[in-house]
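Take a record.
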Amino acid sequence: MIFQRALRRELVSTAGAVFTTLFTITITVMLIKILGQAAGGKVSSQDVIALIGFAALKYLPIILILTGFISVLVAVTRSYQDSEMVVWFASGLSLSRWIRPVLLFALPIVAVIALLSFVVTPWSNQQSAEFRERYEKREDIARISPGKFQESSSSDRVFFVEGTTGDATKVRNVFVNTVRDGKDSLVVAREGTVTVDERGDKFLILDQGRRYDNVTGGDDLRLTEFQRYGVLVAQQSPSVVGDLSARALPTPALLADMNRYNRAELLWRLSLPIMGLLLMLLAIPLGFVNPRGGRSANLLVALLMFIIYSNMVSVFQTAVQKQRLSFEAGWWPLHLAVLLLTVGLFAWRLGVNSPWHPAAMWGAFKRAFIFRKAAPQ
């Protein structure tokens, strides 16, 4: 019990440090990416914090899988490095005694991964898509930052305003350049107001301005002065629907319509908690290290195995999506292979003192070869 309590404390403290590091790196990368999108006018600057939160929820299952895997690996490696395993084995205890405390540490993490995978991540994908779509469907005037040229959503009009009011319904010193059917039209006005007609279409009503038209496509311009002039800003659009792809569908919706895309997404969601549990068990025999050597090579091998495992899950997901493999035959073989690898490594480490262990047999062979070579003729 003392060992189990000490191990759980070590695993929790290590997991806290690993999770903080991985989460900080993820948030920093997402912050740079989304701020770049906001600067380019692809998302609203007011939605940056929400989009970062949705992105964090999307990557949180992978972060938790890596956190549990690295935490168990570091704890086992440290025990070997500090020669605690020597005392452990000399006391007649087996490496299999690590399974119970590691499972007690792993099961809450696996439960959180399953909750995120089946419930939270699809919701965050849907919310992120709705935020982006809602911004895309905003009227062109509402997207404009004062003092900055902004292209319309239809890419045939450029707006420039010197200033706007707080509700973005009134603008002053307006510049609108429209290119349509190979003809240019330039409108400048002192001020304008956004209005909505009875059909729901939005218009920019300009006051006291001029319009320059290139009717012939040459150098000739036609000048028109006006007191009031209406510019169609946005037509009435349907309501926001968000992301309709499989990755944003709730799990009950996936089960209700088991097409090839939904089956592939269900395979991915099911694989995440299984992958988290198996990797934490695999870290126990994988954490072996020579106390006289370093521990970096061991960590690199473990991370390489994680990358291979996660990529193979993606390969099976793609195979199910392209109907090269059925869902029933695609979700379990990879996890079974990892489970067998874990059992094999446990058998390797548990039988290290057996005379039939490969290392012991190799050592006996070398001793016999050296003795025969050194024997007098």
